[in-house]
Amino acid sequence: MAFRVRGTTQEFRFPVWGLLFLALWMLPRVLGVEEIPGHNSHENQGFQIVTFKWHHVQDPYIIALWILVASLAKIVFHLSHKVTSVVPESALLIVLGLILGGIVWAADHIASFTLTPTVFFFYLLPPIVLDAGYFMPNRLFFGNLGTILLYAVIGTVWNAATTGLSLYGVYLSGIMGDLSIGLLDFLLFGSLIAAVDPVAVLAVFEEVHVNDVLFIIVFGESLLNDAVTVVLYNVFDSFVSLGADKVTGVDCVKGIVSFFVVSLGGTLIGIIFAFLLSLVTRFTKHVRIIEPGFVFIISYLSYLTSEMLSLSAILAITFCGICCQKYVKANISEQSSTTVRYTMKMLASGAETIIFMFLGISAVDPAIWTWNTAFILLTLVFISVYRAIGVVLQTWLLNKYRMVQLEIIDQVVMSYGGLRGAVAYALVVLLDEKKVKEKNLFVSTTIIVVFFTVIFQGLTIKPLVQWLKVKKSEHREPKLNEKLHGRAFDHILSAIEDISGQIGHNYLRDKWSNFDRKVLSKLLMRRSAQKSRDRILNVFHELNLKDAISYVAEGERRGSLAFIRSPSTDNIVNVDFSTPRPSTVEASVSYLLRENVSTVCLDMQALEQRRKSIRDTEDTVTHHTLQQYLYKPRQEYKHLYSRHELTSNEDEKQDKEIFHRTMRKRLESFKSTKLGINQTKKTAKLYKRERGQKRRNSSIPNGKIPMESPTRDFTFKEKELEFSDPEETNEYEAEEMSGGIEFLANVTQDTATDSTTGIDNPVFSTEEDQSIFTKVPPWLSPEETVVPSQRARVQIPYSPSNFRRLTPIRLSTKSVDSFLLADSPEERPRSFLPESTHM
Amino acid sequence: MGSAHSMSEEVRELVSKTGFSSEQIEQLHRRFKQLSGGQPTIRKENFNNIPDLELNPIRSKIIHAFFDNRNLRKAPNGLADEINFEDFLIIMSYFRPIEPNMDEEQLERCRKEKLRFLFHMYDSDSDGRITLEEYRNVVEELLSGNPHIGKESARSIADGAMMEAASICVGQMQPDQVYEGITFDDFLKMWQGIDIETKMHVRFLNMDAIALCH
């Protein structure tokens, strides 16, 4: 092998560090450092069995390694909660970058791997901004749009102008020594250092949970000021290259015009692409598997398009995300939606990690460092002071018009939260050294400013927020009443505005939502989605799900769901003993269960701070719970592979089955009301068929039930329930029904062929299956009844006209909310009431 | 604005009563005249002429609230047939934004006032309780804007909400305990932690927006 590792003597002992070092050492080769052509070549020795082709894989390999290093670093940081709770991750990453950069420097004395503007603007920034836009709380954002715009536009211009001019003034006084900078250079520098950075703000503010309004103002500002930054930067950049004496008034006017073109154009591009994206997702029903891809590709195209037209790319992708979210979320399937959510979070947080790490690495390069104490210190002072002054002035103006006043405390946090970040760095690196003589000074100052704001301010903002007792954001469960009242509120307010003849927020919102319902939703949403997209219904659905889960959990704790476990086998089969505290099975199961629930919830919260999806949490929790404690197959299932179809493997299907069973009646009752009788009948039919299927299965003598059939049958049905709606059902009924029959036929065939090799799961033996239906709790009972939520059964509000007495034990069967008395009291022990009510 | 001068005494009284500025009163008066067609009082039918209101699913409830004696602070129950300008202003004043210099006590009172208005809207038979029947009624109307939600699901949503209310307000109930409906105290409890005073307001402009409206 011709490839020799030069630096092996210096390699670290630990494998991870060794790998890391190897990666770092090889870095110089990636970017620009020329390899000796013959270095890797070897004499032709005929065919070689194994060849080492480093150069073949070099680039992607190193990129992958860097990502790995950054991700591993994140793991390490989070090993200690103490550290991460005090120091923001972004600061830690910068420090790590500095250390790694130092190691690279020590090894090679060439610092060539830096954060290049191309990589930053084309690959790292878009995911972060898209994430921000896609998860933007729209109502909050548009409610505060005026405030945000003022800060973003006027605030940024103010910052740029004052910082630039003040620095120029000080320069004239001669403190900075002899520099070849003109006024325009200072203004150029001011314009790039003025903008608050969305990446840094997000990174820090996500860890400091300030209240929503404050967050949206700072964050919105950081997103929207991009247009201003881009324009100011371009204007001054071209002025500098023109030369100060050639700048005319016409150019200044052009600059102002270009601001409007850039910002509005970017926004327009974003909206157009959002429209396109929504429209495309409307028709992806049959290509579910690539559905999430559209979201990313089309939004990315919006970014590139506006970049191509030299409009504000950040605004474009932000508004693309903001505008499409409603329709996309309604159109794509729940799985796709989860995929989009997680992928987006993953990309964004990965990009963020890399950005901060490379900010640190980039700083280790003596070539760029030009120290000028006065300049650097004064820049720091000016940007902080002018930001504070700007915020106070603008807030004073705004508070005259705002309903929710911005207090002094808010202003302090807003001034202090003005973090500068990678955007400024990337812009300063983009400067042309020939035109801007003191580029290096600008670069080093920018690095210092970024480090100072991210590390120092990021570190201190949390204690500051605590010390000032800034209103924190509260995490609140959705309540049905709240949603209902909120809806009533919107209508009342818009009505009052109508009556009093005012045109206000509510009037506009009302008109917009009417327009949205009548035109946009019809155009951009699937018909099925148009129906189910009612927030109140969603909350209702979520609460019902939650009830069911707590029911299962509680039932398990009480042992009343013992029927799920097989009595015919030893207990070990079903309960996973690898979890702690194996000795006290009965007690520990519930404890563990709760523990799991809570940890999973926490994780989810951390991941989705801005937008929480209960349903998703529930899915995870349930899945986890079920996987842990319910069906444990003895044999591996064969995995069907299909590139186009994501069939959840049999294992998962089984895991979900109990959950589905539990939920089905509940959902059915809900859906039957929602979707009309048609659906119910059909469901009933299918249900019967399923039972028939079961009976057929039960006739197999050896008790070894081929598991796929009921399970698959079941999931199939669930899916159909999930995604169909009356209209579509009517349209496709024949097709679907025949499909269903075919499917069942297939399953039956499977049954025949599989019965010998059938999966041998004791839990699923015939007796068990039957026992589920004989010991049925009410929500599983085959009769069609309207099953109320658990709370309904637990605590029925009494209304004389409807209920005689609605208690867990005795219920009026006349009431709509009544349920079958099939279950005995001990199956629904009263002692679990507290848990269910205090959720 | 010749009438402005002659009305000044009344206006001053109204200012102190409702808290609106004289410009706002002036403007609302113009609107009132427009609605009433020049008459001194407004009847229910007058509200039907507002085109924007037609799409509002809870239109009838809102219009009802304008004639509700409880909201007009006239009687503990019943409906007024017609309201004059002062009544109109009183109703409107429920939606005034909070003043920035209010102290805690005033804030609390303001909050209660607003909530009471809302409560009265739900409690249509003025017995001081929102019964399940009444709640269902409101929810049905509220969701009637969405053609895809049937009456049945509206009912079950109302039921769910009622149970939630019961669990918030009463906590764990005894088997033979009965929850008859949401009282105003319960209503306050449910709204705890939600700053209604910043939500329930309309920005009453001083300038004339009616011209833009039509």
TrEMBL record, chain A:
Location of region: Disordered: 688-710
GO MF terms held by the record: sodium:proton antiporter activity
Gene Ontology cellular component annotations, sorted alphabetically: apical plasma membrane; early endosome membrane; recycling endosome membrane
Cation/H+ exchanger transmembrane domain segment(s): 67-467
Domain of life: Eukaryota
Compartments (UniProt record): Apical cell membrane; Early endosome membrane; Recycling endosome membrane
Biased composition (Basic residues): 688-697
Membrane topology value: Multi-pass membrane protein
TM stretches of this protein: 61-79, 91-107, 119-136, 148-171, 183-205, 212-236, 256-280, 349-369, 375-396, 408-429, 441-461
Keywords on record: Antiport, Cell membrane, Endosome, Ion transport, Membrane, Phosphoprotein, Signal, Sodium, Sodium transport, Transmembrane, Transmembrane helix, Transport
Keyword Calcium: no
Primary localization class, coarse: membrane
KW Protein transport (keyword) present: no
Gene Ontology biological process terms from the UniProt entry: regulation of pH
InterPro entries in alphabetical order: Cation/H_exchanger_CPA1, Cation/H_exchanger_TM, Na/H_exchanger_3/5, NaH_exchanger
Signal peptide: 1-32
Stored Pfam families: Na_H_Exchanger (PF00999)
Catalyses which reaction(s): Na(+)(in) + H(+)(out) = Na(+)(out) + H(+)(in)
UniProt xrefs under PANTHER family: SODIUM/HYDROGEN EXCHANGER, SODIUM_HYDROGEN EXCHANGER 3
Family membership: Belongs to the monovalent cation:proton antiporter 1 (CPA1) transporter (TC 2.A.36) family.
Record's function text: Plasma membrane Na(+)/H(+) antiporter. Exchanges intracellular H(+) ions for extracellular Na(+) in 1:1 stoichiometry, playing a key role in salt and fluid absorption and pH homeostasis. Major apical Na(+)/H(+) exchanger in kidney and intestine playing an important role in renal and intestine Na(+) absorption and blood pressure regulation.
UniProt name for this protein: Sodium/hydrogen exchanger
Taxonomic placement: Eukaryota, Metazoa, Chordata, Craniata, Vertebrata
Gene: SLC9A3
